[in-house]
Amino acid sequence: MLSARFLGYVLICAEHAKQMITRWGYQGPLTVNVAINGILGIPWLYSDDAFGIFLRPASELDDGFSFSLPATTDLLMERRDALVADMLQQILFGMNWADRAGASGLEKLLRSGYEYNFWGKPAKLQI
Fold first, then answer.
1. Are the C-beta atoms of residues 70 and 15 closer than 8 Å to each other?
2. What is the predicted pLDDT for the residue at 62?
3. Which domain holds residue 77?
4. Count of structural domains within the chain
């Protein structure tokens, strides 16, 4: 699993955006811009199960990457976790961790972010 701290922060940012956009009353298209730099060879913690935590470089190839993800306010409001899963998938590809970017892996990652944020275990994700 990717660092639960990182996943928790991504979920918090998405929830903050959701609440702010609701307060502003905006409805329409959104663009999520993500830039991650200084990651070449930097170790990240991950776990395949509850019994071991391992180090793996965030990136073995590049020192950074960025991407833009088109979205809508409806997606953010009604399916926040789906938007975060899309972001995480792109991040995993950018870090050369494509083996962790499948649907079941993304759900596991989202749940670890919920646990890090002390949001409890969701019966169902907003996907």
1. no
2. 83
3. 4-116
4. 1
